[in-house]
Predict the 3D structure of the following.
Amino acid sequence: MSSHFHGIRWKIVALVGVLLFALLGSLYQTYLIVHNRQADAVIIDLAGRQRMLIERHLKQVLLASEGFPVDHVETGRLLLQRIDVLIAGGQTIRDIGEQTVVTLPPAQTEMIADKFREQKKLLKAFLAKEWAFLDEPVGTQGSARAREDAIRLNEALVTVANEAVALMSQHSESKIDTIVRWDVIEATIAGIFGLVLTVQLWKTHHELQKETTERQHAQQRTLQALRQSDDLKSALLSSVSHELRTPLTAIQSLVSGLEDANGDVRRELLDGVREEARYLSHLVDNLLDMSRVEAGALRSNRDWHLLEELIEAAIRRLGPALEQRHLRIDLPDSLPTVFVEATELQLVFINLLDNAVKYSPERSTITLHAAVVQGMVEVYVSNHGEGIPPDDTDRVFDRFYRTERAVERGISGTGLGLAICKAIIQAHGGDIRVISSAEETTILFRLPLVPEPLTSMMPPLPGFDAGGA
């Protein structure tokens, strides 16, 4: 429930943030509109003054041609300086005789800049024609022609100046329209976000009404899980107690029989004691190994080993348990060494072979096969006998899990062997699975091949026949 309250708080904060964003955005856009209008007004005003100064300059030239003392040179110089400022930006005065200095940015578009460049080109031509007109004697045909050329160039200058003012006015209005459009877009987005957040707030409120019931159900499920955990612990204690009691009772009975036995009978009784002690030791080892797996205390001292050596060690450990089965080992001569923790991998082979013995009839064949498949060492152990039901194949690697058939038939075990195998194989970066049919069961695991350093090459194990046992 606290998470929902936390979510509501953040959604309210987000909603307020969206509203503030919309307000600040609107204020900023308003500021941009006012600022751009003021800035563009200064530029357009100066461009308009440029047009008037062109006309004034023509009048000064005409007066100068008639001998009046006017400073047309200064006017021409101001025209050129101002047109450069309108193109590239900089400082200039508003008019002749004024001390007010204004700073202008560069032309805002390339089209406006081109129009000012055209104006500058015509202005230079006009100034050149101006001096040609003033150099001609008054009243001559040359003076009349020069005067007409100057007037024509001045008209062209005024036309281009008017076009520049029109372009700047259009650009200013276009900028204002763009700012207004963005303002509308931002307001629309803010409105959509606000609507979405409002809907989410309503949904969260609706979910809060459900959460109380869900929390009650969750508490009931937790209570049920705890009860199941207690039941599992009780079942485990019962199973382990039974599994420990069975070999201990058998050992007590066999030891009692040893008091009066001799010869072959005594030897058989001693073999029985050894077998029950072996099973008891295996059971305790499984419990200890499972505790190490749960504690994450698997060994990490791995080294390079021959798979044949690990298999042979596991077979020696099992000893008499394999005497009533035909064990067929199929290992290719080219099988590479593996980088593993030897004791743990031996435990995998011991558990798999012991499992195959438990669930196969006497005198049947157990097959252990290994090969390199797609860059991995693949090993499987197969046994004949009643297969694993399909519903149980996904659970046989769970801790303490035993199939109903195994329990009904009185097959000994705690349900830890395959769980230990899975933990060890996965710790080595591999995987393990079961394949079962009505008459055969196969446990298959794969381990990744690690490139072996040249210095760690090991000679083949002398005296060990990898073709069978």
Summary: The chain has two domains: 2-206, 301-456. The longest strand covers residues 365-373. Residues 461-469 have pLDDT under 50 and may be disordered. The beta strands are 90-93, 101-104, 303-305, 326-330, 338-340, 365-373, 376-384, 431-436, 440-448.
